């Protein structure tokens, strides 16, 4: 009996991204049919454990425009949808999605946000850093200082606010050893 590898998916109105996480996969077999039948099988591990995925996608696909890439850590399939429309789910059958199928949040884009383009040179490995508000792009000033001339201003402010010994002393008492002790606030 074969096992199911983790299958992650995401979509755009015209594309479907399927990533199968299976490190060191051997004897990889992929089959995609126009009516949406997707089949994958491979072996992995020292014991050559068989893995298999056999699913019916939500709608028809364009097999000729779809592409697959077998890497050392995963198998990625870029599937062209026959019609450019947003699918309500990955699988044709309704009901509970199998546990081995997960959303690929690294590639996921909401339907109403898919036309927004990333800033140049701000994408790396399908992560759009421009949307994370990490600073460095002329954004918000978090330290509240408008002038960058004085880097030591924070330490100078601390030195100025330290009270003097006279300001701290409230009264004088004699300690157990008979020496005077200053009482402080």
From TrEMBL:
This is Co-chaperone protein p23. Transmembrane segments: none annotated. Residues 2-91 form the CS domain. The keyword Chaperone applies. The keyword Glycoprotein does not apply. PANTHER family: CO-CHAPERONE PROTEIN P23 (PTHR22932:SF14), TELOMERASE-BINDING PROTEIN P23 HSP90 CO-CHAPERONE (PTHR22932). Keywords: Chaperone, Cytoplasm, Nucleus. GO terms for cellular component: cytosol; nucleus; protein folding chaperone complex. Residues 142-160 have a biased composition (Acidic residues). GO terms for biological process: chaperone-mediated protein complex assembly; protein folding; response to heat. Interacts with HSP90 in an ATP-dependent manner. GO terms for molecular function: Hsp90 protein binding; protein-folding chaperone binding. InterPro entries: CS_dom (IPR007052), HSP20-like_chaperone (IPR008978), p23-like (IPR045250). Its main location: cytoplasm. It is found in: Cytoplasm; Nucleus. The lineage of its organism: Eukaryota, Viridiplantae, Streptophyta, Embryophyta, Tracheophyta. Belongs to the p23/wos2 family. Acts as a co-chaperone for HSP90. Residues 114-185 are annotated as: Disordered. It holds the Pfam family CS.
């Amino acid at each position: 009996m074969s096992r199911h590898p983790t299958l992650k998916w995401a979509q755009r109105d015209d594309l479907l991204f399927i990533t199968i996480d299976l490190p060191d996969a051997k004897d990889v077999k992929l089959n995609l049919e126009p009516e949406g039948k997707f089949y994958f099988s491979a072996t992995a591990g020292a014991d050559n454990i068989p893995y298999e995925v056999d699913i019916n996608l939500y709608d028809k696909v364009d097999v000729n425009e779809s592409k697959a890439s077998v890497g050392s850590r995963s198998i990625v399939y870029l599937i062209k949808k026959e019609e450019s429309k947003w699918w309500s789910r990955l699988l044709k059958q309704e009901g509970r999605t199998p546990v081995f199928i997960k959303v690929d949040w690294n590639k996921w884009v909401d339907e109403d946000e898919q036309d927004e383009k990333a800033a140049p040179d701000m994408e790396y490995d399908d992560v759009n850093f421009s949307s994370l508000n990490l600073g460095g792009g002329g954004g918000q000033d978090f330290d509240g200082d408008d002038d960058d001339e004085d880097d030591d201003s924070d330490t100078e402010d601390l030195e100025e606010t330290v009270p003097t010994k006279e300001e701290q002393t409230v009264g004088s008492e004699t300690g157990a050893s008979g020496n005077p002790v200053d009482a402080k606030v």
